[in-house]
Amino acid sequence: MFKPPIIVINYKVYNTSFGLSALSIARAAEEVSKEVGITIILAPPSTEIRTLATNVNIPIIAQHVDPVELGAYTGHLPPEAVKEAGAKGFIINHSERRLRIDEVAKLIKRAYELDLTTLACADVPEVAAAISILNPDMIAIEPPELIGSGIAVSKAKPEIIVKTVSKVREVNKKTTILTGAGISSAEDVAKAIELGTSGVLVASAIMKAKEPKKTLEEMAKAAVKASAIKH
Amino acid sequence: MFKPPIIVINYKVYNTSFGLSALSIARAAEEVSKEVGITIILAPPSTEIRTLATNVNIPIIAQHVDPVELGAYTGHLPPEAVKEAGAKGFIINHSERRLRIDEVAKLIKRAYELDLTTLACADVPEVAAAISILNPDMIAIEPPELIGSGIAVSKAKPEIIVKTVSKVREVNKKTTILTGAGISSAEDVAKAIELGTSGVLVASAIMKAKEPKKTLEEMAKAAVKASAIKH
Amino acid sequence: MFKPPIIVINYKVYNTSFGLSALSIARAAEEVSKEVGITIILAPPSTEIRTLATNVNIPIIAQHVDPVELGAYTGHLPPEAVKEAGAKGFIINHSERRLRIDEVAKLIKRAYELDLTTLACADVPEVAAAISILNPDMIAIEPPELIGSGIAVSKAKPEIIVKTVSKVREVNKKTTILTGAGISSAEDVAKAIELGTSGVLVASAIMKAKEPKKTLEEMAKAAVKASAIKH
Amino acid sequence: MFKPPIIVINYKVYNTSFGLSALSIARAAEEVSKEVGITIILAPPSTEIRTLATNVNIPIIAQHVDPVELGAYTGHLPPEAVKEAGAKGFIINHSERRLRIDEVAKLIKRAYELDLTTLACADVPEVAAAISILNPDMIAIEPPELIGSGIAVSKAKPEIIVKTVSKVREVNKKTTILTGAGISSAEDVAKAIELGTSGVLVASAIMKAKEPKKTLEEMAKAAVKASAIKH
Q: Does residue B1 fall inside a structural domain?
């Protein structure tokens, strides 16, 4: 389990998500993590997991794994594959890569067996609560209509975050809750933490930033500050 | 375009398909390729593409790519991703990772633009002919019921190979035709070439072999010999 | 909401699931329902919904609906379509037609708006509990490995039923819980009710029976008897 | 095989696609078919097939069937299901319900065995040619970006139709070629036939028309006239 506050950078598959650019953002994240004292997790494309895991000392998770075992599954990636490459866990059910509920359950169970961390995504509070029954380590609420919009869910729809925290906590006291979708600024990050979650998922705000390190640094400081006030 | 005869090793996602084992098989393949003078292509899991492409000097192709562009597609791999990692092309429509016909068309077109090689798979001669209209560089006939069976299609159903060559050639004179499914021995490889194809796809016969290099060497020699007789 | 005990007959798409045979089984079910005094629900293929709803006076539900709205969705069936044809509800997430968790949530919500009943299926107790958070009217536990096996879950794995009831009731006091998979005899039905569920889902045991009415009658009487003892 | 010119009305799942409205449009189509002397084929939602097939004497085809056999396939419709309900065939691979190429091949083969007609859809000329290798009875070219746009492909992109006819005829002399996507007026229909196809697929232009019969009548007359000029 990772210590909050947490910033997860979902690399997605932008033109900055690969090769030297991927590595440069990872190094910036590693520096910010150390300087500010905050957990930063990277979710690069599968082709970049090993390079990043070898070169930076912050946790790497996969963006997705397939609900298959080792074997004759051409073109699929079982959890073992990303672990072997150096990932510490994986995202499950991102809105751009939804899974069936039985697959979500199976993958969370498999992650426990392989000692991998899981970050499950949900689009609405009810689904977040339903998935939290399956005990993922982290759960992120991401209204799909705000993903990539630049409009932060914490600003535009704070009630969704509040409702998610409340509904999830009715059935699961332990899972770490994160806020995603449209997180663009330090202010958005602070708001997400003030509303009761332990951190954020960001993507384009960092991956498409002119100065990714600067943006990340501001977000990290805001997260730490908001987190300190809360406690 | 690769020079025949061709052996494609589909790593799939066996426990030998990753890390040191993946690299060791790749090195063996590189040696056999040079010693015997034959094209050997490796199709590792996406997490292993970069390591293999960096360490061996024979072509690497991806087992699958997703029909998406660069952008907000969490958990997907566009063709650009595998090219960036060092792949020279990708498999399309393997029986364990089928695609829709419009996706097959789109990916072949995109591969041309990115200067990547395509190897499309088909389960029956009619589908091979249909796909060959879309001009993949290579096309493999793989009856799914024989994949992983240890029973070579070239032995058990030679008429399927003959019919595939005939039907594909009616509409496409150029695409390289390969034989897959159940190829287990040097004899199976020779038979595949005698029946009119330019080489084979193998998977478990190498990936699960006690001595992968020895098996591959025998297959490579048989391919070169059968190929010489044909010409 | 339907009054327990409940027997749901999933017609699936056997050769007996259509036309006159479908109607004959529906009429038998209607008779048994009245004679024995038990709720029997029929889930025929979509092509048969209207005929059955017109000809028998017991509830018809669809085997599946697509998570789409009315509009340009060729080849899909929105909930409105099956309601229009006379269905009172639909099955969601049957193991032979799994859905994503966000789709399950969306369809249950839509069903409420359209005044339709939902019967959600789950393969393991944890998934049953997760789905029950979304408030379907009924939830059925069906271990896929026993579906169509002739081996009743209530006999072979009674602990799965007990665990399902316990886990679902922790988070949902109201949803009706049913037992499915392998239910073949009156004894299996009685056992399912004794273990704490409100009835059963059956398929091949009725659809492939030599005398469907006789089998159904025995099951219905066993259900009523077991139900009476429990209360 | 149906005699050209042909108008296929794809009902999709609009609010007019069900019940009395569905039947009323079907009756209008039947009348126009007889009065103008033209083949009109109806593709209603699966729940409406039997009612329409019973009540009107023009061909009904399904919008989609699943590539499964009779058996334990809850929520799927095998070809046998729609035949039983009165359909004379089915659409395959509509852009709103794409299939894998192996499934397209399997369904066309199965349709021959069941004496059912197939209408396969394609998004680009190359895919139309590829599918035509598999010998569907009819093939429709429908650029997805124009579907439902009200901008007829025959007007906006006539070169796509010409190229489709040319590419399909290189490999298949017999299959009937239709034009779809955006067909809104009698003029669009005439243009589609002048460009070398045997008719059209329409959807919203009829299903959302204030006076469906009037619109259909104009289209039918234009089709017959354009067809007569061509021969």
A: no
Measured in angstroms, the CA of C228 and the nearest CA of chain D are apart by 32
C50/D49 touch (CB, cutoff 8 Å), yes or no: no
CATH number at residue A175: 3.20.20.70
Whether residue A77 lies inside any domain: the answer is yes
Minimal-distance CA residue of chain D relative to C14: D71
Q: Any catalytic annotation for residue B84? A: no
The string of DSSP letters for chain C reads -PPSSEEEEE-TB-TTSSHHHHHHHHHHHHHHIIIII-EEEEE--GGGHHHHHHH-SS-BEES---S--SBS-TT---HHHHHHTT-SEEEES-TTS--BHHHHHHHHHHHHHTT-EEEEEESSHHHHHHHHTT--SEEEE--GGGTTSS--HHHH-HHHHHHHHHHHHHH-SSSEEEE-SS--SHHHHHHHHHTT-SEEEESHHHHT-SSHHHHHHHHHHHHHHHHHHH-
Contact D76 C10 (CB under 8 A): no
Residues of B in contact with D99 (CB under 8 A): 100-101
Write the CB contacts of A103 (distance below 8 Å, at least 6 apart in sequence).
Answer: A67
Q: How far is C81 from chain D (nearest CA, A)?
A: 7
Q: How is residue B134 annotated by DSSP?
A: T
Residue of B45, B78, B148 lying closest to A77 (CB–CB):
B45
Q: Can you read off the two tokens belonging to residue D57? A: 């004497």
Asked if C105 lies within 8 A of A130 by C-beta distance, the reply is yes
Residue-wise pLDDT tens digits, D136-160: 999 999 887 777 777 877 778 889 9
Q: Could you read off the pLDDT of D79-122 as tens digits, one per residue?
A: 999 999 999 999 999 999 999 999 999 999 999 999 999 999 99
Domain with A41, as residue range(s), is: 6-230
State how far residue C25 is from chain A, nearest Cα, in angstroms. Answer: 32
Catalytic residue among A48, A64, A142, A217: A142
Distance from CA of A57 to the nearest CA of B (A): 19
Burial of B178 (0-12, 13-18, 19+ CB in 10 A): buried
Q: What is the pLDDT of residues C149-180, one digit of tens each?
A: 778 777 788 899 999 999 999 999 999 999 98
Active site residue A80: no
What residues of chain A have any CB closer than 8 angstroms to a CB in chain C? 93, 95, 98-102, 104-105, 122-124, 126-127, 129-131, 133-134, 170-171
Whether the complex's predicted ipTM surpasses the cut of 0.90: yes
Query: Which among B75, B78, B82 has CB closest to A63?
Result: B75
Strand stretches in chain A, DSSP E: 6-10, 39-43, 61-62, 89-92, 117-122, 138-141, 176-179, 199-202
Q: Is B96 close to A76, i.e. CB distance below 8 A?
A: yes
Rounded to two decimals, what is the model's pTM? Answer: 0.94
Q: Is residue A1 part of a domain?
A: no
Domain count, chain A: 1
For residue A202, tell me if it sits in a domain.
yes
At B109 the three-state DSSP class reads helix
D82 chain-C contacts, CB cut-off 8 A: 47
Nearest to D78 by CA among D121, D107, D112: D107
